[in-house]
């Protein structure tokens, strides 16, 4: 499992949030604007369509030397030689993923509550998703939000990199970083922005401000 997770701005895709614009254009603009890592997360696609999208996205990510992470689908992650896979609490356990793909595939794990730190294999995760930091219309089946206080408490309990996700906007980005997140994962704040490249750049500059306040 690689130790390093130097990324600060994580784009999590949702084609519906791209508001009818070309999906790959949106992602490429976001990368040009400063996104450091991309996760393909498209719940509406069947396996074949998901694989096709992953293959195409992998080419774009390669071109910019950006890691591509695949949400949930280990078979597709292996098939496209992705840089990692991300699992939630209701997906396969980390140990099950390791048994499937071997330890060479980095695995991101979403934490929904403090107890999830003790789940089987959680200590082998590459990073923890703090999910959701704030409730969001983009994902409505979440339990409860961590909030900034929950994030600060979690920060004291683990040295793993923490990736906050959920209703992160340019306006609250710096505060989430200064409360203990290492990286911000964003869907609509970038995918639905009029100019995804400028939005990504604005997130990066807010992240830099938040890091100064640590
Ligand atoms: N997991 C927790 S919240 C979320 C996911 C995938 C969606 C975040 O979307 P947005 O639009 O950035 O609030
Ligand atoms: Mg999942």
UniProtKB/TrEMBL annotation:
Span of domain Thiamine phosphate synthase/TenI: 9-190
UniProt binding sites for 2-[(2R,5Z)-2-carboxy-4-methylthiazol-5(2H)-ylidene]ethyl phosphate: 136-138, 187-188
Cofactor comment: Binds 1 Mg(2+) ion per subunit.
Protein name from the UniProt record: Thiamine-phosphate synthase
EC top class named in words: transferase
EC number: 2.5.1.3
Entry cofactors: Mg(2+)
Pathways involved: Cofactor biosynthesis; thiamine diphosphate biosynthesis; thiamine phosphate from 4-amino-2-methyl-5-diphosphomethylpyrimidine and 4-methyl-5-(2-phosphoethyl)-thiazole: step 1/1
